[in-house]
Amino acid sequence: MPESKSRNKKKTTSKAEKAEAKIALPGEAVNPRWLAPVMVGLMVLGLAWIVTFYLTSADLGLPIPQIGQWNLAVGFGLIIVGFGLTTRWK
């Protein structure tokens, strides 16, 4: 009667080995530390710019009264640049 092969037991890995496995390899891409804060910051700043313009447009026209409706373009431009940075996320 043939003998069955013994099964290989799973190797147990420690938490330290798992942490080392999460570290990026030399050829692997890593996000720069500044990417996420700048990305979120630009999107929030653009939203705040547009909200400020809408809330004060009747009286003061803030944030920059001289450019008038172009404040919307500035706000949307900030948001678009923030979303553009999301393409660099890895």
Q: Topology of this structure?
A:
Blueprint: H1 15-22, H2 35-56, H3 70-85
How would you sum up this structure, described in words?
The chain is rod-shaped. The protein is 51% helix and 0% strand. The chain contains three helices and no strands. Helix 2 runs antiparallel to helix 3. It has helices at 15-22, 35-56, 70-85. The protein starts with 14 loop residues before the first helix and ends in a 5-residue tail after the last helix. 8% of the residues are buried. With 90 residues, the protein is mostly helical.
Average of pLDDT? 83
Number of strands: 0
Q: What is the radius of gyration? A: 26 Å
The total count of helices amounts to 3
Major β-sheet, in short? none
Shape: rod-shaped
Q: How do the helices and strands follow one another from N- to C-terminus?
A: HHH
How does the helix and strand content classify structurally? Answer: mainly alpha
Residue stretches low in confidence (pLDDT < 50, at least 5 long) are none
Terminal CA distance reads 55 Å
Q: Report the helical percentage.
A: 40-55%
Per DSSP, what share of the residues sits in E-state strands of 2 or more residues? under 5%
